[in-house]
Specification:
167 residues; mainly alpha; elongated
């Protein structure tokens, strides 16, 4: 999902954009891996919390899943911005000039300016993607809620001698 949102943002921001991020396997794999890792990190805690008895109702679980998916989108894009800034900063080392400052200062300065630039322009895209990512979290919340209700239905029933069943 995050890769598609990023593609949409890039297409809308540049009329000449036609190659697509999908043409770069490292970038596409990185965005997908970071998005998946962030989703696992944020949603596993919600899954553990919802599996506890009587901790929340369905609407609370859906809203928490939506907000967590929005947090996943913010983290994914911020990590992408860090990667872009690092790549831009390291590309400064390829320029050889006699009056260039030491490598550390050049990389640090390039990283700072690149990170500020990506934050400046990228924050708009994060804000534009948040409603879509909140909506994408709702089916995840439904799946988590359904897992909870199925788990409580298959719990042992003390009234029937510990046999699984409804009740």
């Amino acid at each position: 999902m995050h890769l598609l949102l990023l593609e949409l943002c890039l297409c809308l921001s540049n009329a000449k954009y036609n190659a697509g991020l999908l043409g770069y396997p490292l970038a596409a794999g990185g965005v997908a891996a970071v998005g998946g890792a962030c989703t696992c990190f944020f949603m596993s805690r919600l899954l553990r919390r919802v599996s506890l008895p009587a901790t929340s109702n369905r609407m609370h679980t859906l809203s928490r899943a939506g907000w967590r998916e929005a947090a996943v989108t913010v983290c994914t894009f911020e990590m992408l911005f860090l990667g872009i800034s690092l790549y831009s900063a390291l590309s400064v080392l390829s320029f050889d000039s006699p009056d260039k400052p030491p490598a550390f200062l050049a990389v640090a300065g390039a990283f700072a300016f690149s990170f500020l630039a990506t934050q400046l322009y990228g924050t708009f895209y994060i804000a534009a993607c948040l409603p879509f990512s909140f909506a994408a979290g709702i089916p995840v919340g439904l799946a988590i809620w359904r897992k909870r209700t199925e788990g409580s239905a298959s719990a042992p029933n003390p009234a029937s001698g510990g046999a699984p069943g409804r009740g």
